[in-house]
Amino acid sequence: MKFLLTSSGIRNPSISGALVDLLGKPIAESTALFVPTGVHPFPGGGEMAWKAMHGRASTPLSQLGWKSLGMLELTALPTIRDENWVPAVREADALLVWGGDVLYLTYWLRKSGLADLLPSLTDTVYVGVSAGSIAVTPYNCDFEFDLGFVPDGSDLAEGGDRALGLVDFTLYPHLNHPDMEDTRLSNIEKWASGIPVPTYAIDDDTAIKVVDGTVEVISEGDWKLIGSR
Predict the structure, then answer these.
(1) Total-model pTM
(2) Which string of DSSP letters, residue by residue, matches 154-169?
(3) How many CA atoms lie within 13 A of 72 on its CB side?
(4) In 3D, which of 62, 61, 141, 63 has the Cα closest to residue 101?
(5) Does domain 2-226 bear CATH number 2.40.50.100?
(6) How far is the C-alpha of 55 from the C-alpha of 1, rounded, in Å?
(7) Quick one: 181 exposed, middle or buried, by C-beta within 10 A (0-12, 13-18, 19+)?
(8) Domain spans in the chain, listed from the N-terminal domain onward
C-alpha cells in the first residue's frame, strides 16, 4: 500500500502533487472512499463528519474533485457481508481516512476487518488526516487525550497506546499549532524519547509519503525527524 500521511489534508501544491504522483493519474480520474469514523466520539462528531464528507471542513480532502466519492463507515462493516463492501475497497484508487480520536479509529479499523485488508491493497493510496495518519503508525501519540472520550467501563482503551504499525515510524501532527499546546516541539521530543522508533513531527503544510517502505517528506512548512532511521 502507498501512504500519504498529513496533518490537515491536501493543503498546498506540493502535497497535491505528491497525491497525484501516488495515484498515477489526475484526481479527476480517480475514485475514493471517505472514512469519517474517527470523529464520531467528539461532541458534534456527526456534524463534523458530514461537513468533512461534503467538503465543508477547513481541511481539504473530499473537495478535491474526485471522479467519484463514497463513504466507508467502519462501525457498520461488522454487520455487512464482506462481498458487499470489500470489492468497493479493492476497486477504489484512494482511501481518505479522516481525523478525530486515534484510539477509536484504530479500534474500528481492526474490528471492521479493514486493518487486515490494508496490506493487500498494493495499488491503493491511503490518505490520512491527523488521527487517520497516526493510526497506521506503531504508536498512538494521542493516547492520553483519547482516553477522555472512552465510555466508562469500555474495553476500547486496552492497548490503546499502540496503533496498526503499517509503517516503521510514528507521527506527531500539527507541529507548533497555535491552538494545540501539546504540539510544541519540546513536548513532542519528550514523548518521542520514550518511543523505540523514529518520530516525524510535522506541521499542517507537511506530509509523509511512503512507497514500498521508502519515506519522503513533502513540505512547504516545518518538520523534524526525532530519532534516526
Answers:
(1) 0.94
(2) -STTTTTTB---SSSS
(3) 28
(4) 141
(5) no
(6) 25
(7) exposed
(8) 2-226
